[in-house]
Design brief:
mainly alpha; 2 domains; 16 helices; 68% helix
């Protein structure tokens, strides 16, 4: 089934759904300011303080075990200066991303979903550094949001999605392959529709849409390749109980293309093949997983 048809089918699934979770407008305004490294901290702090819920969340997360501050931070401006614009941008986006789907019933373990998403984000940041990609924080956020279509399918088609998952459990079927057979679309196209509805930047929409078909990526092929391989690494790491030797899940055309793109566009020399490359990532994965576990506990706490 071609990409256009998959996307049309995704739009049909979403048509008429009026209770989709959203991201508050104030968040978009704050993120826009935080994207500018020369922005005035006072102006950003005032904007955050105009929304009491947002201000409280920023201060709570900054004072959480995630940042291990020596003394409590009670000023939004001090929080901005202490951990930086990028870190504030990340925690606001990720907190609201988690909150958007926090109370939606799913046929799968939502904590496992978040763990995978944030692990992919952290590994994407690591891979970005290894290949000399210009914006490792962008890689981190792209990795986190790559699977957002799953939470829509899981909630709004809960019974059918649960049956699909039960049917492929213990088989070699990849989730997106089963989704295409069951629904005529996949979480990639559904995620694209969600991202467009939330006014995500075009690069993120492209990565969400093509992370399982990286050979079709247009706007940022190397970042799509980074997220595709990071997702594949995390799936294999879990499937192989933490040891990456022979791949437990075999590479598809998408991952093979992602590896070619990484080799062609990387600013640094890479290993001879995907397993050798993954072996270099495995050493730091335990530490990444521990940090992500702390992050998830912080972000999912009321």
């Amino acid at each position: 089934m071609d990409k256009v048809t998959l996307t049309i089918n995704a739009r049909k699934l979403m048509k008429g759904v009026s209770d989709l979770p959203g991201i508050p407008g104030i968040v978009s305004q704050v993120i826009s300011l935080l994207d500018n490294p020369d922005a005035d901290p006072d102006k950003i702090a005032d904007l955050i303080l105009s929304d009491q819920v947002l201000a409280a969340r920023v201060l709570w997360v900054v004072n959480s075990p995630l940042f291990r501050v020596a003394t409590e931070i009670t000023s939004v401006k001090r929080a901005l200066l202490h951990i930086g614009f990028q870190a504030i941008r990340e925690l606001i986006l990720t907190r609201y991303f988690v909150d958007a789907f926090k109370n939606l019933e799913q046929p799968f373990d939502i904590k496992v979903f978040w763990l995978h998403s944030f692990n992919v984000g952290a590994v994407s940041r690591l891979v970005a550094g290894k290949v000399g990609y210009r914006d490792s924080e962008k890689a981190y956020l792209a990795g986190i949001v790559h699977d957002i279509g799953k939470v829509f399918l899981g909630h709004y088609l809960r019974k059918e999605y649960g049956e699909m998952l039960a049917g492929v459990n213990g088989t070699r079927y990849r989730t997106y392959e089963a989704e295409q057979e069951f629904f005529g679309t996949t979480h990639s196209e559904v995620g694209l529709c969600l991202a467009q509805r939330w006014n995500f930047p075009p690069d993120y929409c492209d990565i969400i849409s093509y992370h399982h078909t990286s050979e079709l990526a247009i706007l940022d092929p190397i970042l799509t390749a980074i997220v595709s391989l990071s997702d594949f690494f995390c799936l294999n790491h879990d499937a192989s109980n933490g040891e990456i030797g022979e791949l437990a899940i075999q590479a598809t055309r998408s991952e093979e293309n992602a590896w070619r793109v990484l080799n062609q566009l990387s600013n640094r020399p890479l290993e001879k093949d995907i397993p050798a490359f993954f072996a270099t990532l495995s050493d730091g994965y335990a530490e990444i997983a521990d940090e992500v576990d702390v992050l998830i506990r912080v972000l999912t706490r009321d």
